[in-house]
Amino acid sequence: MKMKPNKILEKELEICDAHHHIWDFPTSKYLADELLEDFVSGHNVTSSVYMECGHAYDTSLPKHLASTGETKFIENFAEEILKRTNGDVAACKAIVSYTDLCLGSRTQESLEAHLAASNRFCGVRHATGWDADKNIRNAHTKPTEGLMLTKEFSNGIRALTKLNLSFDAWLYHPQILEFATLAKNHPNQIMVLDHVGGPLGIGRYAGARKLVYEQWKKNISLLATQENVYVKLGGLAMSITGMVNKRLPNIDTIQLAALTAPYYLHVIDKFGAERCIFESNFPVDKVGVSYSTLWNSFKYITQSFSPSEKLALFKGTAEKIYHSGN
Description:
It is globular and about 55 Å long. The protein has helices at about 30-40, 70-85, 105-115, 150-160, 175-185, 210-225, 255-270, 290-300, 305-320; strands at about 15-20, 25, 30, 45-50, 90-95, 120-125, 165-170, 190-195, 230-235, 275-280. It has one domain: TIM Barrel, CATH 3.20.20.140. The strands form two sheets. It has an eight-stranded parallel beta sheet with strand order 1-4-5-6-7-8-9-10. It has a two-stranded antiparallel sheet with strand order 2-3. By secondary structure, the chain is α/β, with parallel strands linked by helices.
């Protein structure tokens, strides 16, 4: 008997959404109402990890401390959600914020300011997504080519290690080997590769999905030898992947799974379920798919997995590396 395409699978399976944003920009809003509408759309989302997005900076502070405004904002937001849900949903239970890792002693000062701003603060994402193609927008942090291999960036990673903070990497697939070198040079630093390494499908990569996949697949396999690296499974509904370019109200679980399973299953095969984490990347991926269908596709892909593997993929590993299990 075939599954109904939009039937919610495993409704009781607990989920920690390991990667989402909160923002209120002139052209886009994703605040408490929008978040909770998604969280209760059919799945058992009980906690989440907030990922920096350059929102709510405190511009009254020196530039290297301004991002602490985002941490303070999300600290208050997390408390608001707890009150609204009577403690049932620990949204933003862990906060990953931004600190420029290339500022020497000021990096350390910034990290300490984030720690003082919230007990939920647990790590940093300094996005390094860069490509020579002018039709591909580089990351919001305005990175330069080869940034992860610079002495300054390595010094910033050492500051994270010293304070037991995680590092999230947002990059594009041609940079995976650069990231692997960074991970090899800092074996004691927990590193998380966002969005399965950012396979591109626009600009010079448009129409070359098969070639991109083969390069991505090879480099992911090499990265897996670095035991301090974890990978987030998600982000493939972003427009930059060229896979789902606009939201299709009728896209279903099975169709989405067919597009994404080759990527997710390869990563799980090479890293093991205990080093992989499902993520929504909302509201960014909302351009391609609904929240309910996205999580249903993750469940559909892993139907044959063991209970312990599902625990790791959907909640356990995220809470372990982001110190949010208590």
